[in-house]
Design a protein that fits this description.
The chain has seven helices and five strands; from the N terminus they run αβαβαβαβαβαα. The protein is mainly alpha-helical. The chain has a three-stranded parallel β-sheet. It has a two-stranded parallel ribbon with strand order 1-2. Helix 2 links the parallel strand 1 and strand 2 (48-50).
């Protein structure tokens, strides 16, 4: 008798624990047998496990979750994952070992095949979203204040233009903060 078993990626448990601590629900969609999938789910502390799924079943599950108002992020690396990656709100593939079909459907490709990079990508996206909001506030605030001030003759038009250009510089410098603290 020969027994073949997938091995769990090193670091997967820590990644899933961090996602759970951040309030992210974790679900495994797999074509594997139910017993094997449930054991892996138990070992990793997954929220839910759906086993014995064909690619179209995975897509249906993702669409069902989306219809319930959830934003689904799918992580995969195989040809069978490509349809699910396409159906997800955000799709992430493992680059070094990922199939071409999975890579093409992905929004994010983790090039080093380290699942821990998923946390880095998520953290970066959260920071980027916050900085985008700050930049909008800075730029629209400066334009609004200067436009109203110029309309009422409180400041000369040239000062308004200088303030606008200054806010552009501030927005660019604020965006550069994303480069600090990056891991390679």
């Amino acid at each position: 008798r020969i027994l073949l078993q997938d091995t769990i990626r090193q670091g997967s448990r820590r990644v899933l624990e961090q996602l759970k601590a951040d309030g992210v629900e974790t679900i495994m969609l797999t074509g594997d047998r139910r017993a094997a999938a449930e054991q892996i789910g138990k070992d990793l502390g997954l929220g839910s496990v759906f086993a014995g799924l064909k690619p179209e079943d995975k897509v249906a599950t993702i669409k069902e979750l989306t219809d319930r108002g959830r934003k689904v992020a799918m992580v995969g690396d195989g040809v069978n994952d490509a349809p699910s990656l396409a159906a997800a709100y955000v799709s992430v593939s493992m680059g070094a070992r990922g199939s071409d079909a999975a890579l093409e459907q992905s929004d994010i490709v983790l090039m080093r095949d380290k699942i821990e990079k998923l946390l880095t990508a998520r953290e970066l996206s959260v920071k980027a979203r916050a900085i985008i909001k700050q930049n909008l506030f800075i730029s629209l605030g400066a334009i609004t204040i200067m436009a109203v001030s110029a309309l009422f003759g409180l400041v000369p038009l040239t000062l308004g233009v200088i303030a606008h250009e200054g806010s552009t510089v501030i927005v660019c410098l604020n965006s550069l903060r994303l480069l600090f603290g990056r891991e390679s």
